[in-house]
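Um, can you check?
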Amino acid sequence: MAARRDLTLAEKVELIRKNEQNVPYRKLTGEYKISIGSVSNIVKPKVEYIENYEQNENSNKKRNLRDEFSQQLDQKVYEWFVQQR
C-alpha cells in the first residue's frame, strides 16, 4: 500500500491550473504521486480551492479544519483518554 500524500493548497491550485491546460489525469498522477481518484477529488471542487488560494489563505495548509463543535469534541475525548490512561 502506498504512503498517503497530502498536497498543499498551492500544489492543488497548480494541479488545477495544469488540468485546465488539458494535461491528462494520468500525467498529473505521475507528477504529483497521487491516485487518479485523488486528482479527481481535487479537480471537482476547484472553485473552492482557487478562492481559498486567492484569499491568501496559508498556501502550505494541507487540510481544512472541521467545524468548532467537532474540534471541541475531539479535545474532550482526548482529555478523557489522558485521564483514563
Helices lie at 9-20, 25-32, 36-43, 46-54, 68-84.
